[in-house]
Amino acid sequence: MLLLRTPGFGGRSFLRLLEKYTPAQLFTDTGIAQFELGLKSDIVQAIKNPDWSLIDGDLAWLEQKNNTAITLNDSHFPPLLKEIPDPPPILFVRGNPELLSKPQIAIVGSRNPSTIGMETAAAFAKTLSQHGFVITSGLALGIDASSHQGALDAKGYTIAVAGTGLDRVYPARHLDLATEIVNTGAMVSEFPPGTLAKANHFPRRNRIISGLCQGLLVVEAARSSGSLITARMALEQNREVFAIPGSIHNPLARGCNALIREGAKLVETTQDILEEFSQYIQEDKNYPQEELQTTLDLELQTLLNRIMFSPTAIDKLVEETGNSVEVISSMLLILELQGYIESNAGGCYTRLK
To answer: Using CA atoms, how far apart are residues 159 and 127, in angstroms rounded to an integer?
Structure first.
């Protein structure tokens, strides 16, 4: 805790120290820090004179129910995370720390996804949970939250990796979700209690998300999405990367399509993921299998086939079918009520399945 609270003493310096010395040796001989690690004199002084109020706060947090901290040398530190180039020296955990070493699939994506994107993330999380995988994500808005909720709905386990201290929840609107996750799963952070959300914390959080998992699934991501950073970290960490493709006209699909061009596995169903991890699958006959698409009559199916997975104008459907606006509108209503399409602004419809 003392080293973690030392200003300017980052994780890489911490790891360099642990290669040769124990933290106790550093405090009894600060020359190690100054000469062998090349630390500046102000950092050495901070090590000699730590802020004990912060340390006392950390210890008080650890005394609370369900709170723990796992060091890199602890036997309970997750083995996969320990393999990455810059593992966190300490992991703070709220909830069940044993889940960190269980087989995990991480699911990430846009903070501003489409309705179908959120439904897809939740559905994949639910099914993967039913096959024994822990679902890992970052508690962010959009795809992350849908993934956590999908696992919870399946009565499965989920891990949320935070970019803040675990005494707070970011974003604040996910307080109830975070509470539910802690009650059955775990929240994890390398940042000590009291740490606020900062932009540079989230790329560091992302390497933990990818480092914990066997495989990572990207559901929706624009070309500039932070999810692509997580995916590339996963590739560098030798993890399997999966991506759900989308329309070339959909900006939220361009990141996923780019990942597929770069070698990520194209995913259409959970089976595409499960076949890569057969050794981890736990079958439960009580779980329902994925439902097949409901059979439509010929006329409705013909119309559905003309609706794209990107916005399709009703005028275009009238022109292509030769039917009146009234007839097409009635059929579209049926398809929407059955969950095949959703209406968009401007008299357009988007296919969902």
So the answer is: 16
